[in-house]
Amino acid sequence: MSSSKSLKIGIVGFGTFGQFLANTMIKQGHTLTATSRTDYSQLCLQMGIHFFRDVTALLEADMDVILLCTSISSLSEVVGSMPLTCLKRPTLFVDVLSVKEHPRNLLLRVLPEELDILCTHPMFGPVSGKNGWQNLTFMYDRVRINDEATCSKFLQIFSSEGCKMVEMSCEEHDRAAAKSQFITHTIGRTLAEMDIEPTPIDTKGFQALVQLKEPVMGCSFDLYSGLFVHNRFARQELENLEHALHKVKEMLVQRMDEGQNSKRTES
């Protein structure tokens, strides 16, 4: 990548997902710095990333982009503690959280007008994206963009890897994610609570359920609870699921009662 297309990106929160994104960004030729509550200085040294123990130093390092890779639950605390006056120029703030209205509202409330906001959600992770990002979905919402050039360069990180780029509002995302991502996690965790395990006579359908459970349980409960607490559409979907299960149970009980009544009539 030529220097005209490279970005200086500061990653706030260098956990598993931040590291996952960083690997591809480095390959593309971008200059990365990072900060995190955990000391990742040795890992960053191996990756060619400058690690700051203090977020103030990262903000003073003159970044084009501040990439927020924190957990859903800690975002408010992390952003609220940032000394934004340390920024040397207008900067693009990007989040990659699995909910979107929450970071959008927070960033609009906290960040001054001159700071740009791009809300995104890569619909993949270290497992699904381990062999590349081709045809994997990347959702984004240009919440507040003054510097189109920097925003376009950042989005190109994903489009150049072959991602399916989907522009939609944060509200649309959360409404859809409550029906898809949240329900998927809920079903997976429910199966885990039932101690669902493979058997010697598994059908393909049951194998699919087991395969659903494993990656879901690989995600933290902090992430799962964030999908519920910070997505205003999730509660209704949980109620819809409970109602659907109750309705199915009623249909089964009704059929059982009909069978018993039929036997009494025959006798």
UniProtKB/TrEMBL annotation:
Biological process annotations from GO: tyrosine biosynthetic process
Domain Prephenate/arogenate dehydrogenase: 7-267
Coiled coil spans: 231-258
Entry keyword set: Coiled coil, Oxidoreductase
GO MF annotation, one: prephenate dehydrogenase (NADP+) activity
Keyword Oxidoreductase: yes
InterPro entries: 6-PGluconate_DH-like_C_sf (IPR008927), NAD(P)-bd_dom_sf (IPR036291), PDH_N (IPR046826), Prephen_DH (IPR003099), TYRAAT1/2 (IPR045011), TYRAAT2_C (IPR059064)
Signal sequence range: none
Classification via SUPFAM superfamilies: 6-phosphogluconate dehydrogenase C-terminal domain-like (SSF48179), NAD(P)-binding Rossmann-fold domains (SSF51735)
Protein name (Swiss-Prot/TrEMBL): Prephenate/arogenate dehydrogenase domain-containing protein
Species name: Pisum sativum
